[in-house]
């Protein structure tokens, strides 16, 4: 009996060693490119083009960062990206929640048909409507403004979020809002006093996805924005890449600067985000 | 609840407005544009189904279609398998697991153009990190983005690298599997592989199915990194990049819209095939009512 226990303990230790080795190997594989990015951003031009390439930088060439900042007008582009991302975040969280609330808690004629349509728009790839929507926006003179990148969000432009929030709202016990109704609360009051506070993990999760999607969006700004001072960071970086094809030092420095806000947000909201993903089953 | 009959419409009205203005009207319009030759500066010229028949005679189109479909069919299962393996690996209470989970999840956090540029640089034939590592291992350097035969592998490599970013739903699914299933299997003498195959994969199948559908749609619509990275001329030009070029570089709106419709039909067909197959391998708890009901928080 005791030898059986010892044997299974040895087996468990062995398994833990295998598991750790795999984890370390995979983590290195995942992090190495990011470290290479950081290393490149600090290398001088000569070292970047040495054969064979060196992994570590030759000191700290911060001038890559100052060049990236000045050549893509980082401050302006940062402000543009932030503006667009902020409004998308606001609309994706708040408007999606309003619509989801309508579907989760009200009975009205035609409801199931409308909801079916929400589901079908999730499956409809945006590419089909992209060109007519572009032509429509250009006819009313909205190209080269942020409006085409902001307004759709306020018109419930994120059906996936509506769907996920509806699922989440339906899991909130009905007794809560029923007793509030008895106390004479309006439906909107119930929405922002009961539903929103109870859904914070789900809302944070959606917020992060929205932030990421909007911050990283390339196609939208590429289509709609023409003036360089209206560009977003990804678009600026893409154009910068076109001009300075082989300047990998400043390019990697600029890339890191674009990544930083997403990293900061992620680490700030990590706990609620992980909880939200578990609750709503969204892809991570 | 005792609200007025049409009160719900108040809440869903932003979406209804958007649905009419940004989905229904554009869809009708798109149907028409696809039948025209139109550069947006002059009046559209009706050409019937000409755009659609031109598509399949266009070598660039066929190339873009081919690389995109190959990429979707290989990358989606590859990504799913890698994500599951990572999820299984981090689903235990070993010391330091929080660090490994965060590290492996990083590709989902740091996405977008910055990472596309990073890969373009890493895959550089002469000065990139991938060839540097290969040469240390005694493997000859590859023209990842310059050799037409290697382009697809370059994109697949990025998918595998990013697979940790897709682990969260699988991890949540794994944590939902009741331990008594494994215990029962052990009593029946099942080995580790049998347990993984019959319990883990079966119980994860709804999550796998969800990721399969999202993966197919995502792969077919691939744009950002394909636009930035490209690769070996035609070989790295994905469907959406070619569509974008037609619409906004060459101003062939009719042709590009026809491409969008073909993409739509392709995505529908692939998704339908996935749905059709699902009854054979996706397990839903509600189908079996003999199992004890699981409590969820």
From TrEMBL, chain A:
Its main location: membrane. The chain crosses the membrane at residues 20-39, 82-101, 113-137, 149-169, 190-211, 248-269. It comes from the Bacteria. It is a multi-pass membrane protein. CDD domains: TM_PBP2 (cd06261). The keyword Membrane applies. PROSITE patterns: ABC_TM1. This is Carbohydrate ABC transporter permease.
Automatic annotation (TrEMBL), chain B:
GO terms for cellular component: plasma membrane. SUPFAM superfamilies: MetI-like (SSF161098). It is a multi-pass membrane protein. Keywords: Cell membrane, Membrane, Transmembrane, Transmembrane helix, Transport. It comes from the Bacteria. The chain crosses the membrane at residues 12-35, 64-90, 102-122, 152-172, 201-220, 256-275. Residues 65-274 form the ABC transmembrane type-1 domain. GO terms for biological process: transmembrane transport. InterPro entries: ABC_transporter_permease, MetI-like, MetI-like_sf. It is found in: Cell membrane. Belongs to the binding-protein-dependent transport system permease family. This is Sugar ABC transporter permease.
